Amino acid sequence: MMMTNPNDDMLEDILAQARGLTVVPGHGLMARVLADADAVQPDPSTVSAPQTGFWARMMDAIGGWPAVSGLAAATIAGIWIGIAPPSSVQDLAATMAGDEVSISLFSTDLMFDTGVLIDG
Amino acid sequence: MNASPDPFADAPDAALLVAYANGDGQAARILTTRLLPRVLAQATRMLGSQTEAEDIAQDAMMRLWKIAPDWRQGEAQVSTWLYRVVANLCTDRLRKRHGAVSLDQVSEPLDAAPSVVAQMQTQARMTALSDALAQLPDRQAQAVSLRHLEGLTNPEIAQIMDISVRSVESLTARGKRALSDLMAGRKAELGYDDDEPE
Questions:
Q1: What is the interface pTM, i.e. ipTM, of the complex?
Q2: pLDDT in tens, B5-24
């Protein structure tokens, strides 16, 4: 036996109203979120890295940590560079840093056309 | 004026997050502009209060900033991760409620202008909805919210909640039934006709 349920109708109406709410973040909230981001952002000049061994050689391959910190400038030109270490390096880094190192591959998703790099 | 397009404009969320973790000075602003509105909206719909939702939104974004150095690209979408974090923070907050109803958005009207009365009624309905959500088991509340407040599909919800699609269907059906029953006694108060069911 099928019966319409007015309670369900009310709920549907209220759910629809909730879906339709326009919610705009105020400037205060935006400012607080950005301040938080600034407060916890890693400092590129102090990004920790083992100074010897396999990891250092991997870093040298891309020009060292100054090259990584130079991403702030490089990103203006639109490049994101990731590093895919061999699993042995990842294990070493994890052992030394105590955390899993998450690093992205050189990925076509992240690389922009070289035309974007040319200034002017 | 340099007319070249902003290279950040179309970058995926995850790429911006990695750039942020590498010290980039612009990525956080772009991510915030993109992500904060939806995060705040999801929390507002679950909690029925934009003020409370702001706390949750700020908390969720802080968690995103903190996880940025460990973000593994290709494993999950930032949006999926945020839906999950906000849903969990909201059910945590709902569980702590002790039946207190807050009408913080609209104070007592000085006149009875229809728009103000309508605002109060909307607020009362949103509060009633969120109070009812607070009485559901967390996972029912999350599934129902993601389905009927955020409009996500069952497969999307399954990914967010890390459960099967069948479980999502079960949770949303039971949760919606429970919500309907919980709110049944408040029809007149919320401005609906209290007719006998046919």
A1: 0.87
A2: 677 778 999 999 999 999 99
